[in-house]
Amino acid sequence: MKMKLYKSTGPGRRLSPVRHSFAQAAAWLGCLLMILSAWQASAQSVQITGKIKDANDVLPGVAIVEKGTNNGTVSAVDGTFKLDVSNANATLTISNVGYVTQEIALAGKTFIEVDLAEDQKTLNEVVVIGYGSLNKKEVSSAITHLSGKDLLRVGGNNPLMAIQGKVAGLSVANTSAADPNSSPSIQLRGASSRSAGLGPLFVINGVPGGNIDNINQNEIESIDVLKGGAASAIYGTRGSNGVIVITTKKGSETSRIFYDGYATFDYATNQLEVLSREDFLANKRGVDFGGNTNWMKEVKRNPSFSHKHTLQFSGGNGKTNYFTSLDYRDANGIDLRSAKREYGGRININHKTANNLVELSFTAAPRYTKTSDAYYAGFNHALTLNPTLDLRDSTGKYAYLTSGFFANNPVEVAKSVKSDREYKLMDLNGSAKINILENLNTVVTIGQVNSSMRRYLFSPSTLTTIVNGNKRNTGEQILEENDQKSFEWIGNYYLDLNKHSVKLLGGYSFQYFTASGFNAKNENFPSNVLTYNNLGSGLWNLQEGINNVGSYKNSSKLIAFFGRLNYDFDQKYYLSASLRREGSSKFGYSNKWGYFPAASVAWRATQEQFLKNIPWLNELKVRADYGETGNQDFGNYLSLDTYGGYGYYLYNGINYQVWGPSQNTNYDLRWEKAANFNAGLDFELFGSKLSGSLNYYIRTNRDLLGNYNVSNPPNIQGQTFANVGTMRNTGFELQLNASVLRKGDFTYDIGFTGAYNNNKFVSFSNSLFRGQKYVDVVGMPSPGSPGTLQRLQEDTRIGSFFALKSAGVNDQGALLVYNKKGEVIPGNQATADDKQFVGNGLPKFTMGLSNNFKYKNWDLSVFLRGAFGYELFNTYAFYLGTPATQENANVLKSAYDGGKYSKLTSPTTYSALSDYFLEPGGFVKIDNVTLSYTQPIQTKFLQSVRIYATTRNLATFTKFTGGDPDLINVNGLYPGVNRNSDNNGTLDYYPSTTQLLLGVQLTF
């Protein structure tokens, strides 16, 4: 029977619903109103109270935030809190430094009690060591770990500029940071050698001797600085100056595209100021040529402009992942000539087989760079050139001046002379890991680091100095190639048995180094058009009967066997011991092989029962280590009999090459030895809000390599390269990190590094060679005959200035000094016997201070850096800063500003070296300020956008009047004075700059 939903009401009447439908509708409407009312009530704010604690006590200062909003508060001193949330079903996020973040769904509750668990991630942070890695809690030597996010944002030339001041005891110095082709000098825990290398060993992705110039800062995953001898001894003959381990990024299962691009503007700052045209003439400094030229302005770009772009791809699955990085940089220096164009890339591929038996990895990193060298002398000339000379003469040619310090036009030289370089770099490495057992594996790594540098030089015949000189244009090409091949095979075994844990490492290493080169030079080319590209067309070599070509090739080998044991008991007591036996072809016949032992211990005191209940003490680890390391960074074949050319001998009209022994062979040559002791402690306090480490070290370097004077005869040469001398460095290092403030969306963190270093050159002698007690070093250039400025002496700190002690200036404007009897005499009457130690150029204390602020999507970091307790020699004041400076040369404004240097008017004492020109070198810099804004974007293609701005070298506070104190190198054996590659004084000058960097990062 068909159901009727409607009934008839008669003809012509409209059908209507049955009567009980009205009642049902009213009921449904009432229910809906009740639901809406309930929903409205639940949408009203609800007050939530609660208490936060950990396993020991209540926790103040904990952040409580309603998830998905900016609504939040922090817990009070007694751990309690109150917070009005939007509804009774909200979710709270509870977070505190050093604890695992929790999310609590209220589900109608108005009171909650939360127990926060300690976050062990800091203790479990992976620290990369030699041939492996450890959790931070297992480390028993002095190692500083930096992640990629800890690096400073710097538009620089070398990724290590990003850690300047970030590692206590590591000195990163660049005296010409605005030159895009400059490289910083790196020194760890003071100078350690005379003639061998002073820089640390770089290990990149496990390959010792990696090329630091072939890394883009955006590629870095982490940097670990192995400072303690026990950590670096595993690298034997190359570990004396410390080891810096760099790990680059790898792919992950999540596909990602990342772009980073920035532009930089460098503005000259803290410049040396010279007399204007008016002041030059008023003080009768020289001839008036009628012009008005600011030479310092003419020889530089202000600002210089650079830009860099990086594009990275990464992704994969559970078994295979990849990471690819491409970058391009176009940079210009503050001078007129320097430039750098580089293209680089890196690809990392990792693969595991289905059963995890084999793990394969491969890395390739090519880089091509073309550069133009900076013209450093241009600034020297600009300081002294007559400001009344125009840039060009009346005919439009570059003006040329033959008087004064320098006889050329620096603008013409910078724009006309070519000094170019071409670099080709390639880093390759691959490894295969076989997981034999769950706790046993073996890894084979093969690597190659290859570099090729071709240099091009050309001076055209139109150059004014050539037109007024020998009339010959000159061209030259130089090729230098270096290749390093390595093979390393290691095995790892792990055993955990109750409270005992053992890690065993054994390995073999082989490295083969080859260096070769070629050069050719000619002069008097028929045209300037082909520059250095047709050297054979020059007539000079034929006319003079010379070839002007040369070539070389040399090689060396390193072979090593090594092993290490890591043991810990109950995650409380740790022991590490290692031994490396290494041989080098550089050493003498009886010293080819050496042993490098090391041991370290650590005690996690907070694992003891009597310290576990101290609420403010989260971690305390005491450690000590000892290790012996070496240094073999010197030339090849110095322990072998070698022959070389001694010119040509003309006989019967034919030139014969003269050959003979080229050196005094030292069959006993061996590596420098360093005995390293380190004691330290690591700590975390107040809920891990304050953490840090403290280290005390003693490093004694023996058998220092260097050339020593010997009698001739019986020796063929007057010097022998030998192991003679001892040096000692001691010091303290402090590294701190603190979470200062956590309040809602605002956080403030501080990081501090401080290092004190004391140095002593102990001895120049050993059982075979009896050297002198001292060596006078750093010869100062002309004009005049100033002599040497520093003395390297036994039982004395390096960098000691050895000069005349000033006694002021007399009425005639002559410098007065003390003689050896203590009598005051004019400086020109003093002799070398009147010199004495008058100061030191090695900083006693260095520091870095990071301030990191975060508010919502904004980040601000302010980094300060400083050095204290040393003197700098004001080279420019000595040569250019007094009225006594030779005529027809411009001078610094200090010569006539009424200050101490303006009193030296007498030319009789012009070249007397004294402490009159020593000034305090201490400084504090606002070194790096970065402001950024990150905006997450949930779209199909774009995940986030970050915009950032950085300033570098924003301000310097110092008493030094010779410009930026950072321009004077304090690394090496001769700190505190401008010096060239031969370690003699120089007037070379390259202004410091303030850098403005604007960038954007996109994540897809």
General description of the model:
α5 packs antiparallel against α6. The protein has 1004 residues and is mainly beta. Residues 1-43 have low confidence and may be disordered. The strands form 12 sheets. The chain has a 22-stranded antiparallel β-barrel. Strands 10-15-16-13-14 form a 5-stranded mixed beta sheet. A 4-stranded antiparallel beta sheet has the order 3-2-5-6, with no helix packed on it.
Record keyword descriptors for this entry:
disordered N terminus, mainly beta, 1004 residues, globular, single chain, 10 helices
In short:
The protein is 7% helix and 48% strand. The chain is mainly beta and 1004 residues long.
Draw up the topology in text.
Elements: H1 20-43, E1 46-53, E2 63-66, E3 72-74, E4 80-85, E5 91-95, E6 102-105, E7 111-115, E8 126-129, E9 132-135, E10 143-147, E11 170-173, E12 185-188, E13 201-204, E14 207-208, E15 220-226, H2 229-232, E16 243-248, E17 256-269, H3 277-282, H4 295-298, E18 304-316, E19 320-332, E20 339-352, E21 358-372, H5 377-384, H6 410-416, E22 418-437, E23 440-459, H7 464-467, E24 474-497, E25 500-523, H8 540-544, E26 549-569, E27 573-584, E28 593-604, H9 609-612, E29 617-631, E30 643-651, E31 654-661, E32 672-685, E33 690-702, E34 705-709, E35 719-723, E36 726-743, E37 746-763, E38 774-780, E39 787-793, E40 800-803, E41 805-809, E42 815-818, E43 824-826, E44 836-840, E45 845-855, E46 858-868, E47 871-873, H10 875-880, E48 918-920, E49 923-936, E50 944-958, E51 992-1003
Helix pairs in contact: 5-6
